[in-house]
TrEMBL record:
Keywords (A to Z) from UniProt: Cell outer membrane, Membrane, Receptor, Signal, TonB box, Transmembrane, Transmembrane beta strand, Transport
Pfam families on file: Plug, TonB_dep_Rec_b-barrel
Region Disordered, residue ranges: 44-75
Membrane topology value: Multi-pass membrane protein
Signal sequence coordinates: 1-24
The name this protein goes by in its record: TonB-dependent receptor
Stretches assigned to the TonB-dependent receptor-like beta-barrel domain: 306-719
Compartmental location: Cell outer membrane
Source lineage: Bacteria, Pseudomonadati, Pseudomonadota, Betaproteobacteria, Burkholderiales
SUPFAM superfamilies recorded: Porins (SSF56935)
Length: 757
């Protein structure tokens, strides 16, 4: 049944801010002299000009430069970018004392995190599920298997959210792009040392991070690293009910699951910058991430009723399991820049990576009498390797034009061996076979950013991208090829005599099938049902193609605040959706989920944001900062019936509301944030209806600054600790099968000490 739409208190607060901001005093546009780097839609180096200024090619010897020691703020960078881009720097990264980037992202406008609070999940923009949001690290695609939960805020310089598309980046970004920029060259000379100790249900999670900058002649460097450990306990219950074609009960059972897990890891991200005598610069940044996880779990199944006609697999009564996993990622980033006498610039980026993922588990299952019925062992060894290079030649020409052209190449390989045995026999036909998959991505782009007049700037670009995937298994060779051409046009109109501006963008983007959706060894469900099926790939998938429009109004306040509204529409063709069907094997009938292209879909929405200081409107008010955002989404999938035929996992609404209060007589700052996503239904297929319960998270913090070199932060996350509820109903082949799942969530307390040495 559809969920009624109600405005939340957060939505009302955002709307009220829009009304009140109309009465705020705004400042006239101030002159800012463009720097030597030129301008691009993604580099945030574009500067506003005086209405009386004419945009001319830079003249090196006669240009007067204005230098501001503190640099431009995140708001200034956002305003001066032609592309619709949000930037969040150290203030946002450090505010709540988070221990992973996922917790930072969940508070940003239009961003939601799948899964249970405190356990991470896929990162989504505009409510769109996994694969629609492009995740980049230093402008490059994140490696397969990489988890943002293992990346600490201390290793990150800033987060960039690109709502539309730019030709310089891959256009695999139907929902948008999130670019995680790792720590850059430090200007200060101090070493940052941070200790934190978290506690969840009394289970301690220590974390130590250090950042050491330095300079030797023309070489500057910054070493950043962290070590961490956490212990977690998960607990969930699932009630399953199934009725046969006559409406009679066929199955009723309860399942209780518990898992204890310990994870230890280390992250290293040194950075080297060298400036040559001719002005060329070379940046090298290796990135190492290693984690080790050990877990043990217990699953109990209490079968309340099972009819003689029930055709499902015979369940176990008790299962004990233990697992060990080790993951290592080693990536190298490089960037070389050369400037020419005509103010042109050539940037060449290069890199590569190695990934090693080893997982081993043992699961023992018993019947109601305590007799062992299954011993399941699973060993999965995966090796990933990649090489990539990209470049951009940027040339200022004419009056106010900056032309850029470039290339992008990435080559990847995955070698995987999985041996899965049930009582010594293979669980699936390919168990023990080697999977060798290779991907090749080639792209070329050209773009022009130009000032039409002092009030109007525009951006136009086109990108061609081709992806080739091939795999070799014991069954033979499978290939998949796709090519996409993506034109992009964006414009910004700066309203005269104010800081306000309007943005409009048109873009073509796409979503390429994931490697696991194309080519994957089967994933076997130990308790196979229509709602917990086996999973496999489909080598015949085509990419989803999208055409979209973005329209935004931005009102910039005088005290580094902003009030904005953004509208978007996306039309999607060849939508990919997983479907579940019964497959007859030699032993039994198994439920198997595989992806398919099912047709056309459309999604649209509105995103509201308000960020301001209370003194903006009331000069004598306390030093209080407000941060709020509210998003409302609609979507429809043409080839699926029902009133909830929306995009998979897309909620109807999401909102954040945060406050920071700096006391006047004490060096103390208090603050917090409320994150809210209401419950919603999704008609996944004509046969399956899914329900996702409400998500509410309350985070609070207190920051005491003893002196400029020492501060202590106390954070409390997920204070409400609401259970995570989800249901799934499948009606097919005359049966009616439903699962009700209730998973616990937990509050987390963290004490963090930050020192500058």
């Amino acid at each position: 049944m559809p969920i009624p739409f109600r405005f939340s208190p957060v939505a009302i607060a955002v709307a009220a801010t829009f009304v009140s901001s109309a009465y705020a005093q705004t400042e006239a546009v101030k002159p800012v002299i463009a720097d030597e780097t030129g301008k691009t839609a993604t580099s945030s180096t574009k500067a506003a000009t005086l209405p009386s200024q004419k945009t001319e090619a830079p003249v090196k010897e006669n240009v007067q430069k204005v230098t501001i020691s503190g640099g431009r703020s995140d708001i200034d960078e956002r305003r001066q970018s032609t592309a619709a881009k949000l930037i969040f720097g150290r203030e946002e990264l450090d505010r709540n004392g988070d221990t992973n980037i996922g917790d930072v992202l969940k508070r940003l406008p239009g961003v939601t995190i799948g899964g249970r609070p405190g356990r991470g999940g896929d990162i989504r923009m505009r409510g769109m599920g996994n694969g629609y949001t492009q995740i980049l690290i230093n402008g490059e695609r994140a490696p397969r298997g990489f988890s943002m939960d293992s990346l600490t805020p201390d290793q990150v310089e800033r987060i960039e959210i690109v709502r539309g598309a730019v030709a310089e980046f891959s256009t695999q970004a139907i929902a948008g792009t999130i670019n995680i920029v790792l720590r850059e060259e430090y200007k200060q000379k101090t070493t940052d040392l941070k200790f934190s100790l978290g506690s969840e249900q009394g289970r301690l999670a220590p974390n130590v991070s250090i950042t050491m900058p330095g300079e030797i002649g023309n070489l500057s460097y910054a070493f950043s690293g962290s070590v961490f450990q956490n212990r977690q306990h998960d607990e969930s219950t699932t009630f399953t009910s199934e009725k046969d074609a006559n409406g009679q009960d066929a199955l009723m059972q309860n399942q209780a699951d518990q898992t204890n897990r310990q994870t230890t890891g280390i992250n290293l991200a040194p950075r080297l910058n060298y400036r040559f005598e001719n002005g060329d610069t070379l940046m090298l940044q290796p990135f190492l991430m290693h984690s080790r996880s050990d877990s043990d779990s217990r699953s109990e199944v209490d079968q309340l009723f099972r009819s003689d006609t029930y055709r499902g697999a015979t369940p176990y009564a008790l299962a004990n399991a233990n697992a060990h996993a080790e993951t290592t990622f080693l990536r190298g980033f490089g960037n070389w820049q050369h400037r020419f006498e005509n103010n042109a610039k050539l940037t060449v980026r290069f890199g590569g990576g190695l990934g090693k993922m080893d997982n081993a588990s043992t699961r023992t299952q018993f019947d109601t009498s305590g007799k062992q019925i299954d011993l399941i062992t699973d060993v999965n060894n995966t090796r990933d390797s990649s090489l990539n290079t990209s470049g951009k030649y940027m040339l200022p020409y004419g009056e106010g034009h900056t032309l850029a052209a470039g290339w992008d190449m990435e080559f990847g390989r995955r070698e995987q061996t999985r041996v899965s045995l049930d009582n010594g026999l293979p669980q699936f036909a390919e168990s023990g076979d080697n999977l060798d998959a290779r991907t090749r991505r080639l792209a070329a782009f050209v773009q022009d950013e130009f000032d039409i007049n002092p009030q109007f700037a525009a951006y136009a670009g086109v990108r061609w991208e081709g992806i080739h995937t091939s795999s070799t298994t014991a069954k033979g060779v499978v290939t998949n090829d796709s090519t996409v051409v993506s034109p992009i046009v964006q414009g910004v109109w700066r309203i005269p005599d104010s800081k306000d501006q309007i943005r409009l963008g048109f873009s073509s983007t796409y979503r390429a099938p994931a490697l696991n959706d194309l080519i994957a060894l089967p994933s076997i469900s130990n308790l196979n049902t229509p709602t917990r099926p086996d999973r496999t790939g489909n080598p015949n998938l085509k990419p989803e193609l999208s055409k979209g429009i973005d329209l935004a109004f931005e009102h910039y306040l005088s005290r580094a605040g902003i009030v904005s509204a953004n509208l978007f529409v996306r039309n999607i063709d060849d939508l990919i959706r997983r479907t579940t069907e019964p497959v007859v094997t030699a032993q039994e009938t198994r439920w198997v989920s595989s992806p398919k292209n099912i047709g056309h879909a459309v999604t649209k929405g509105i995103e509201l944001e308000a960020k301001f200081q209370l003194q903006e409107f009331f000069p004598d008010a306390p030093s209080v900062d407000f941060r709020s955002n509210y998003s409302r989404f609609w979507s429809k999938v043409d080839d699926i019936l029902g009133s909830n035929n929306r995009l998979d996992q897309q909620p109807a609404q999401t909102a954040n509301f945060g406050v920071d209060y700096r006391l006047s007589r004490l060096p103390l700052t208090l603050g917090g944030n409320v994150n809210w996503t209401p419950a919603y239904y999704t008609q996944a297929t004509n046969a399956q209806l899914n329900y996702t319960g409400i998500k509410r998270q309350l985070d609070l913090y207190a920051l005491w600054k003893f002196n400029p070199n020492l501060q202590v932060r106390l954070s409390a996350n997920n204070l409400t600790a609401n259970d995570s509820i989800s249901n799934s109903l499948v009606t097919t082949g005359g049966i009616n099968h439903i699962d009700y799942n209730d998973a616990k969530t937990y509050k987390t307390l963290t004490l963090r000490v930050e020192m500058k040495i």
